[in-house]
Design a protein that fits this description.
There is one protein chain. By secondary structure, the chain is α/β, with parallel strands linked by helices. The protein contains 13 helices and 15 strands. The chain folds into 2 domains: 165 residues, Aspartate Aminotransferase, domain 1, CATH 3.90.1150; 262 residues, 3-Layer(aba) Sandwich (Aspartate Aminotransferase, domain 2). The strands form 3 sheets. A 7-stranded mixed sheet has the order 4-10-9-8-7-5-6, with helices on both faces. A 4-stranded mixed sheet has the order 1-2-3-13. The longest helix is centred in the C-terminal third of the chain and has 22 residues. Its cofactor is pyridoxal 5'-phosphate. This is Gamma-aminobutyrate:alpha-ketoglutarate aminotransferase. One of its GO terms (molecular function) is pyridoxal phosphate binding.
């Protein structure tokens, strides 16, 4: 079966199916319970925006490996590039024997990331590693120690990035003590303004909180970096006002603070631009990337102003597998395809269809409190009551499970667990997209 031609899901067994049940038992016997699972689906193969499981059930994939498969599953050009590289060599470690693909991918990221200044890039394996290294560099460059992060942030699960991450359950519970030198600031979550204000007449009071923050929490002269997601990912795809970022950039410039944009989930055309920070009229000093650049192979990048990136001493940066040759050739091919085939336009088209349809659902179902997004990074926040905005966490879980039973893979998000997020591959066809949204609406109707 050519999965690219499949337009709608097809469930032919109970879920999980008989083969999946056996694998599930094997999984439970061999994996720790701390490794969570959204579904009991076991993949057999995938193409584009479609997954077939080991029992022959076919799903529309609106999760995309948590935002990794922007290019789509099993892109033939990427597969060919990786196969060609695999026949030459798998690994040398870039710090021991150089290889051209590492240099070319660094050059390409320096070219496509926003900022009209000279940049430099190096590679690690994951988004968490990228964030760790960005903070190392900022501390080295400034000679300062303190880091400011935001409520609702998710930056990873290592000690440093877990400290940066805001949500306690499940990411931090029982794993302390945490890394020192981290300070947390309000994120401008306009749907749930922490100051109880309305977006249109708030006069950006959330920025003015920095005045007291610098007096009561940490002196700006001690801050090495402020790190922010251009759109909060795990906390529910929350978009800060552009004016907030402009004023944040001014604060960083005033006090010599490095501004880091974590683009791990927002990067590579997801938001309708190659990077979400391109929506701003100002630029971050360092950008971290991962997820979709490798088309599923583990690679992450740290790209920043050359003078900042060069502040570290020789040997201070690196890692055995960082910028693996297979991942580098995949990354080069991914960017080539995205630029050639106008993936930003694809994301914006997906976004328009989804936002229009979700807003139409909002008119019919009171459980939908907010619909938001940029490009194909879209979220729908569910509430028990639109006035109180009490989170509808249980209903969110039920809706996602109902979608899975009917062949649509979706993810939740939000610190309150009441947001459904959409991360479908950007190669999803219009028919697949519409059929997936039909499954979602039927699930909402069933649950509420």
């Amino acid at each position: 079966m050519d999965l690219k031609l499949v337009e709608e899901p097809k469930i032919i067994t109970e879920l999980p199916g008989p083969k999946a049940k056996k694998l599930l038992e094997q999984r439970n016997n061999n994996l720790p319970v701390g490794v969570s699972q959204l579904t009991s689906t076991f993949i057999e193969k995938a193409q584009g925006a479609v997954i077939e499981d080991v029992d022959g059930n076919v799903f529309l994939d609106f999760a995309g490996g948590i935002g990794v498969m922007n290019i789509g599953h099993s892109n033939l050009e990427v597969v060919a590039a990786v196969k060609e590289q695999a026949e030459k060599y798998f690994h040398t470690c870039s710090m021991v024997v150089n290889y051209e693909s590492y240099i070319k991918l660094a050059e390409k990221l320096n070219e496509v990331t926003p900022g009209n200044f000279k940049k430099k890039t190096f590679f690690v394996n994951s988004g968490a590693e990228a964030v760790e290294n960005a903070i190392k560099i900022a501390r080295k460059y400034t000679g300062r120690t303190e880091i400011v992060v935001f409520n609702g942030a998710f930056h990873g699960r290592t000690l440093m990035t877990m400290t940066l991450t805001s949500k306690v359950k499940p990411y931090k519970l029982g794993f302390g003590p945490f890394a020192p030198g981290i300070h947390r600031m309000y994120f401008p979550y306009c749907y749930r303004c922490p100051l109880g204000l309305e977006k249109n007449n708030c006069n950006m009071q959330c920025v003015k909180l920095f005045d007291d923050f610098f007096i009561e929490e940490v002196a700006p002269e001690e801050i090495a970096a402020i790190i922010i997601e251009p759109i909060l990912g795990e906390s529910g795809f929350i978009i800060p006002p552009d004016e907030y970022i402009i004023q944040l950039r001014s604060i960083c410039d005033k006090y010599g603070i490095v501004l880091i944009a974590d683009e791990v989930q927002t990067g590579f055309c997801r938001t309708g631009k190659m990077f979400a920070s391109q929506y701003w009229s100002v630029y971050p000093d360092i950008i971290t990337t991962a997820k979709s650049v490798g088309s599923g192979l583990p690679i992450a990048g740290i790209t920043g102003k050359a003078e900042i990136m060069d502040a570290t001493h020789s040997g201070g940066l690196g890692g055995t597998f960082g910028g693996n040759p297979l991942a580098c050739v995949a990354g080069l091919k991914v960017i080539e395809i995205m630029q050639r085939d106008n993936f930003c336009d694809k994301a914006n088209s997906i976004g328009k269809i989804c936002i229009d349809r979700l807003n139409a659902m909002k008119e019919k179902y009171k459980i939908i409190g907010d619909v938001r997004g940029r490009g194909a990074m879209i979220a729908m926040e569910l509430v028990k009551d639109r006035q109180t905005k009490e989170p509808a966490k249980e209903e969110t879980t039920k809706i996602i499970n109902e979608c899975w039973k009917n062949g649509l893979l979706l993810l939740s998000a939000g610190t309150r667990g009441n947001t459904i997020r959409f991360l479908m591959p950007l190669v999803v066809t219009e028919k697949q997209l519409i059929n997936g949204l039909e499954v979602l609406e039927r699930a909402i109707k069933t649950v509420v």
